[in-house]
Amino acid sequence: MDELRKIETLTEAAGLATTPLSAESYRSAAFYDLERERIFRRAWLVMGRVEAIPQPGDYFVKTIEVLDASLILTRTKDGAIRGFHNVCSHRQNQLVPGETGNANRFVCRYHSWTYRNDGELIAVPDEARFFDLDKKKCGLTPVAVEVWEGWIFANLTPEPEVSLAEFLGDFGTSHRDLPYPNPERALVLTGEFQANWKTVADAFSEAYHIRTIHAKTLAPVYTGAANPYGRPISAEVYGPHRSLSTWVNPEFAPPERALVEKWLYPQARTVTGTGKTEETNRVAMHPAVNPTKSPEWASDVKWLFPNFHIHVSATMFWTHQFWPTGPRTARWEGRFYMPVARTARERLQQEHYVSHMTDIMLEDVMNIESTQRGMNSGAKDLLHIQDGEIMVRHSLQQVERWAKAATVREALAP
Amino acid sequence: MKSSAITTRLLPTGFEALEGFVGYWDVETSHARWQRRSEASMDQILAFYNTALPLADRALAHVESFPLDGLPDDTARLMRLLLALTQAAIAVEYHGQPRAAFTPYPHALRIAAGMSPWG
């Protein structure tokens, strides 16, 4: 780790202040109102992967509690992905009750108003008894949707101030052509917490906690004699977005007593899918992944403002999304993308991964609610953030910036 | 319950030692498996782990003699026990106790979708 000692801190290198931060935005109802209008209504938000709706008619419904919104994301006959508010034009009932499906038309369960999946209203029972009803004006309300690198984004401003490309900025250009292996299927974990969405997000944004929280599970992988505190390899900020590269212990080997693990895996591997031997593949070679090309690289955390993490290792990727449901409550969704098992051994390897990952996530979330209670108490004003927690710092700084900015362009200005 | 001369075999021949674990550990989803392990005592987990591990290689070979999407009922049950063994393993091999240290139970996490089959 001599290399790490020579450089200035990642925080200073990224041009960020080093002062303590205010805890107010984690507990204030007034600030939550600002976040709703100035962040979640103005930012481009990740809805999911294009592979979730491969065929025309495929759709999924996304709930965005902070905006009281329910969206239908669907693929139309021409192959385009479209987004609509999930609201019938008649008496405003929510149109689609389910989460996923395939339908060329959506029929409201109240009075059977029927829409094509491109949003057009095509049938109104007993239409003759309405009064000057113009069906052309009563289609589903569209939502701005754009796709970047297979990620579907939506923007809840009726006419977004900036395009997705402008919102992503340098992050978007530098992360072009990054492969996402096995994007068709994911293990999905969910949780609802008595905690602000940022409290939840912060828990997945640094490796400083690993030696304490994950002492028996991840600590032997992500900390070691050469880097006892799991300091990150590198960090970059890209406008409102950011990326962190985490270190892997080259000395790691599964414990002697991990007999099931040794039985299932012919060679040493780690739970995040990082091979012990240096792997050369298109993910690891991508210039924006582990940009210093450290041989002791575990995985990258790419944090898309405001609430989406993409984690990439040499062999797999996984995501976290943090949705506010109130000033002091949040919903978390983790997706770990994996191939369909071809053999029983592969299926068992996956289950081994699942059983370990779920406990690791449980270790991650165990402090979330107690941290929130500490902040709610108002006993302290400040958060002391160290260098390895640079993403927590940059996130909060950007959240406060967007909450103050009158326009998105002002928030995005250098 | 009346005693019966005919014993119904739940598992393929050769895996009789695991019959007693079917009732508790044979469940359909990853989330249910996680719950079973989280609610078991360490003695229960160790009894299953110590019986299943020496048979695991032979059990997997038996399961792999069929296509994964066409397992006979008894073999599917055996496969689900192997899936449950990975749950027992984290308790025995990492935590040294049924659940991770300092984690709450019950908790707010849910496996909303697992991997197929029986995820």
Describe the structure.
The complex is a heterodimer of chains A (414) and B (119). Helices cover 26% and strands 25% of the residues of chain A. Chain A is built from 13 helices and 19 strands. Chain A has a 7-stranded antiparallel beta sheet with strand order 2-11-10-5-4-3-6. In chain A, strands 12-18-17-16-15-14-13 form a 7-stranded antiparallel beta sheet. Chain A has a 3-stranded antiparallel beta sheet with strand order 7-8-9, with no helix packed on it. Chain B has a domain at 17-95. Chain B is mainly alpha-helical. Chain B is built from 4 helices and 1 strand. The longest helix of chain B has 23 residues, at 73-95. Classes of the chains: A alpha+beta (414), B mainly alpha (119). Chains A and B meet through strand 12, helix 8 and helix 10 of A and helix 2, helix 3, helix 4 and strand 1 of B. Strand 12 of chain A pairs antiparallel with strand 1 of chain B.
Search tags:
heterodimer; A: 414 residues; alpha+beta; Naphthalene 1,2-dioxygenase Alpha Subunit, Chain A, domain 1; Rieske Iron-sulfur Protein; 2 domains; 7-stranded antiparallel sheet; 13 helices; 19 strands; globular; B: 119 residues; mainly alpha; 52% helix
SSE topology string of chain B:
HHHHE
Query: What characteristic shape of chain B results from the CA principal axes?
Result: globular
Number of strands of chain A: 19
Q: Could you tell me the strand content of chain A as a percent range?
A: 25-35%
Q: Describe the sheet with the most strands of chain A.
A: 7 strands, antiparallel
Q: Average pLDDT of chain A, to the nearest integer?
A: 94
CATH architecture heading of the largest domain in chain A: Alpha-Beta Complex
Q: How confident is the prediction overall: mean pLDDT of chain B?
A: 94
So how many helices of chain B? 4
State the major sheet of chain B: none
Q: What's the CATH C level of the largest domain in chain A?
A: Alpha Beta
Query: Low-confidence stretches of chain A at least 5 residues in length (pLDDT < 50)?
Result: 275-279
N-to-C terminal Cα separation of chain A, in Å? 32 Å
Bin the strand percentage of chain B. Answer: under 5%
Tell me the name of the CATH homologous superfamily of the largest domain in chain A. Answer: Naphthalene 1,2-dioxygenase Alpha Subunit, Chain A, domain 1
Which spans of chain B have pLDDT < 50 for at least 5 consecutive residues?
none
Total of domains of chain A: 2
Question: In the CATH scheme, what's the topology name of the largest domain in chain A?
Answer: Naphthalene 1,2-dioxygenase Alpha Subunit, Chain A, domain 1
Largest interface: A-B, 44 and 43 residues
